[in-house]
Design a protein that fits this description.
This protein is mainly α. It folds into three domains: about 80 residues, no CATH class; about 40 residues, no CATH class; about 55 residues. The chain is built from ten helices and no strands. The longest helix is centred in the last third of the chain and has 20 residues. This is TniQ domain-containing protein. It comes from Actinoplanes campanulatus.
Length: about 210
């Protein structure tokens, strides 16, 4: 994490070929045109213009201004959704409800029961009475739901699904494919969360 005493990251050098914005296009549309005019992959330019050191967030106004030779004020006026500074993320610790905690325990009991069929052993392992073990084993397992919808990825699902099923393809490769080959206007974090949830769901289905 960057501290207040760390020197600011150097700004990008100006790109050889400037491109004029075409309001009301989005920032990402402008980035795609800017990248192609300068013979760059759009995903590479997005990374280059994001906040160091991770370079995985949104494009920052000062970095885009330095790369295009335009002022920050002009870019913010043209692109109201452009971020001048990184947003502070609010970190919260999720709390399980009693029902959710019980279901997690039931899932663990059912998973352990696949290797041992002794109720007495399960009682000792989880420290619960026999009626709890029986209740957990009698519960019909529900398919593990996807915790979040991703409507922004709906137009690209038929491109994403074949990539998700291949574990050798990284989330990074899936994101750059969407940006470079399908002009997707989506962040790396969104793709990461979607791919992770889909792969976990697939693992759950295989174990059921």
């Amino acid at each position: 994490m960057t501290s207040l005493l760390d020197p600011p990251a150097p700004l990008p050098a100006p790109l050889p070929i400037p491109v004029r914005p075409r309001p009301p296009e989005s920032v990402n549309s402008y980035i795609r045109r800017l990248a192609r005019a300068n013979h760059l992959r759009p995903s590479y330019l997005r990374i280059y213009l994001a906040q160091p050191p991770q370079h995985l967030g949104s494009v920052r106004a000062p970095r885009l201004a330095a790369a295009t030779g335009r002022s920050v004020e002009a870019l913010l006026h043209t692109f109201p959704d452009l971020q001048a500074t990184p947003r502070q993320r609010q970190v919260s610790t999720p709390r399980l409800t009693p029902d959710a905690a019980q279901e997690l325990m039931f899932e663990a009991i059912r998973a352990e029961a696949r290797t041992t069929f002794s109720i007495r052993t399960l009682m000792k392992t989880f420290g619960v009475p026999s009626r709890t073990i029986i209740k957990a084993l009698a519960r019909v397992e529900q398919p593990h739901p996807t915790s979040k919808n991703f409507p922004i990825l709906e137009p690209f699902r038929h491109h994403i699904e074949p990539l998700i099923t291949n574990p050798a393809i990284t989330i990074w490769a899936i994101w750059t494919t969407l940006i470079d080959e399908h002009d997707a206007d989506v962040s790396y974090g969104t793709v990461r969360d979607y791919v992770t949830s889909r792969r976990r769901r697939a693992e759950w289905d295989q174990q059921s």
